């Protein structure tokens, strides 16, 4: 039987609070502030048309729904267990999603990934915060800071 995992507070705060709240903010903007969402998503400060086509609005509502799913899954699943297997599987899936999310930013050009001094709030969320989440997931998956319930450093990384 695998030793019981003691989840460090930094992971609990990030994965159970900060990241789900951030995803809820993304859901809010994608659902209720669609024009702002699209305007702020532009790295080169381009502006979308004033009236969004119905298909664009529908796609943003579907995106908002996925942000909501992401927030609820991450919070409810991870807060219900200390199983390292469950935490690792969910965080691995989210790490794959982080990579996919960053790929969706490619049409903005390669500058979007590193010219952080030009980022607006949406770019900080869509790139910078994704970097932070992916980094936290990689640290967890690598076993950084993980100890068994009796305080021993994990040996099975």
TrEMBL record:
Name the keywords, alphabetized: Membrane, Transmembrane, Transmembrane helix
The protein's matches in InterPro entries, at most eight in alphabetical order, are given as: DUF7704 (IPR056121)
Task: List the transmembrane segments.
Answer: 9-31, 51-70, 90-109, 121-146
Asked whether the keyword Membrane is assigned, the reply is yes
Q: Which positions fall inside the DUF7704 domain? A: 6-145
What protein does this entry describe? Answer: DUF7704 domain-containing protein
